[in-house]
Amino acid sequence: MIQRRQVLGLLLTLPLAGCGFRLRGSDPTTVTLPPALQVVSDDPYGRIVQLLTQDLRGRGVSVVTEQAPILTVGGLLESQRVLGPVVRNGVSVDQIELLTTLQYTLDGPDRVNWIPETTVQATVIYVEGATENSNEAARTRALRERLLADVAAQVVPSLSLRYGQWLSQGEGR
Questions:
Q1: How many domains does the structure of the chain reveal?
Q2: What gap in Å lies between CA 173 and CA 171, rounded to an integer?
Q3: If we measure between CA atoms, which residue out of 94, 102, 78 comes closest to residue 136?
Q4: Which residues contact 72 (CB under 8 A, 6 or more apart)?
Q5: Mapping DSSP to helix (H, G, I), strand (E, B) and coil, where does residue 127 land?
Q6: What is the pTM of this model?
């Protein structure tokens, strides 16, 4: 039965693969970014800027200090809220949501706004430990650091999509 499903699946996908079909957004060559960018932030040596710079350089974008479009990153907010109690090992503990948001804009070298303020966010829900101890604090710090990395990882794909839309509307010509 499983072999028949595999053969049927293969027979259905081969014609699509042969004609060059691709899911929208799955082509890695569709990444549209300026060849160079300035990254501006309230904390120019902070973790967010480091992660963004690394991601941009990994995609072939030069990070420069002048004469390039300006990616302004700011509005980093971290928040948490208690969603309600759950029972863990016979003890009632809180279920907590951590949320990290970040905003960015892209302006041309002449300071004309190309991409308006855009917000990206990441969230995680976890169950706190039954007791307050150093392991719980370390776990929460690790979750917050991971959320920060997740938010930073969303900026460049979002920027690429928005920049591609801006170009396709004829704005960049």
A1: 1
A2: 6
A3: 94
A4: 40, 41, 104, 105, 106, 107
A5: strand
A6: 0.72
